[in-house]
User: What shape does this take?
Amino acid sequence: MQQPTSPQQSNSEAAGCTAVRSAHRRALRWLTAIGAVTLATALLADVETAEVEIRGSQFIPATLTVVPGTTVRWTNAEKRTSHSILFPEEGGLESERFFPGESWQRRFERPGRYRYTCGPHPEMHGEVIVTE
Assistant: This one.
């Protein structure tokens, strides 16, 4: 048989339960916030940088479709040859030459088609398509 409790004892137990529930809610909020930040970081990492490899005197992939705000990084995977990225339709905007193992990058903000070639090897062609 259960002993009757005094009102003071009941209030004390209720306060303890409330404190525990409050602590659980705070912990749940923190875990949710941490999860959201982790997910957002992972998604942004995927969206923000796209890779183009230069190998065998080709841009791989030759055509790349990205969203505004994406940075495209070209990496020279050749053994001996230097390359540059030249945008003839943008007034001849050209990167510095970069050597095997080096890379160059550019951020694309506006939708459009950005055709490019290699400065020293004009037979190499590529295109970045920025869509919304």
Q: What stands out?
A: Strands lie at 49-55, 58-60, 63-66, 70-76, 85-87, 93-94, 103-108, 112-118, 125-130. The longest helix spans residues 7-48. Residues 48-130 form a domain with the Immunoglobulin-like fold (CATH 2.60.40.420). Helices lie at 7-48.
